[in-house]
Amino acid sequence: MTRRGGDDPAVAVDPLPLELVGYRVLRRLARGSHAVRYLGSAGPEADPVVLEAVEPSARADGLRRARALEEATVAAGAAHIERLLDLGEGEGPVLVTEWFPRGDLPGLLGARAALGCGAAAVLAALLGMAAAVETVKPEWRDPEYGHRLNQLRALRSAHPGRPLVVAVGSSRTQMGVSPAAMGFADAPGAPLVFNFGQSGAGPLRMDLTVERLAAEGIVPDVLLVEFFPAALAHDGPAEEQLKATTARLSWGDLRRLEPYTTDRAALRRRWAGGRFASWHSLRLVLMSHWQPNWLPWHDRLAFQWEMTDPFGFSPYPQEDVSDADRARGIARVREQYAGLMSDYRVGPMSDRV
């Protein structure tokens, strides 16, 4: 059987095969330089399929047939490909795929709709998390700051009118200043002391904490600031000092840190990437809130808020320290700070805070 194809009446079309790889060939659908597509059926009750076979004129050309086989093998790895069948050395591969009649694409449209809904859900989850950590859930972004902020708000609400004393500093402040042990009376006019220490906080983070609190409308009557000389020797711009914790910053923090940057754009780019992908950049914080048992011990962060009392004080996690452990700890710290203290200077970036 021979018929004319395309707009050129001189182009001859090869006879329609009766059968391919067990499928009855119903009609030809399309033709390319390497392959030809047929509509086929496995039986009267079976759904029609598309049979993509090597173009007849290419079967004798080893190079074209090899290219067709390579393309078919790659295509066979796609999810919508049913199977790849090889007809043999002379005829080449045949791809069998699902057929969607023109104008009637329920399966294809359903898949596209599902993909679209999935993409919309992912985008909503990304934007929703980014909005949450920026607004109502600061503890999911920066747990040490966020949980203490919530505690301080609750404390001030429970004791209105009392003068507020806030201590800022590093873990030394966290574990060294216990407001509950100060013995102030729970009475009007008595100081209300709160510990806002945060692990590893140097001058830059202490300054950032005070500015954050002011933005929340919390201005202490007395501010206690940890003075640790070795921390003042830390140098480098904000984008480097806070590089490992950029995802814990808020949009407002970028403006607050701007005077202490040398490359403002780098800090903003790093922050934007982490904020859009908050599910990833804050994964350890989120998991420590929701399912800490799914994390290995060294990745769990819940101790940062679970060990904190209502006044922000966090005791040293190890209740008993042996004399030998204490001696080793002191020796280790002396070694860590020996270089800083032997040639002590306040770095130019630290001096700007």
Q: Could you walk me through the main structural features you see in this protein, from its secondary elements to its overall organization?
A:
This protein has 353 residues and is α+β, with helices and mostly antiparallel strands. Helix content is 43%, strand content 16%. The chain has 15 helices and eleven strands. It has helices at 62-75, 106-134, 138-141, 143-158, 171-176, 203-215, 229-232, 238-241, 251-257, 264-276, 278-281, 283-290, 303-306, 323-342, 348-352, and strands at residues 3-4, 12-13, 19-20, 23-31, 35-41, 49-54, 81-86, 93-98, 164-169, 192-197, 222-225. It has a six-stranded antiparallel sheet, covered by helices on one side. Strand 4 (23-31) and strand 5 form a beta hairpin. It starts with a strand and ends with a helix.
Provide key terms for this protein.
single chain, 353 residues, alpha+beta, six-stranded antiparallel β-sheet, three-stranded parallel β-sheet, 15 helices, 11 strands, disordered N terminus
H/E element sequence: EEEEEEHEEHHHEHEHEHHHHHHHHH
β-strand number: 11
Poorly predicted residue ranges: 1-12
> Could you tell me the radius of gyration in angstroms?
34 Å
Helix content: 40-55%
Class per helix and strand makeup: alpha+beta
Termini, distance in Å?
88 Å
* Largest sheet report: 6 strands, antiparallel
Number of helices: 15
* Portion in beta strands: 15-25%
Mean pLDDT: 83
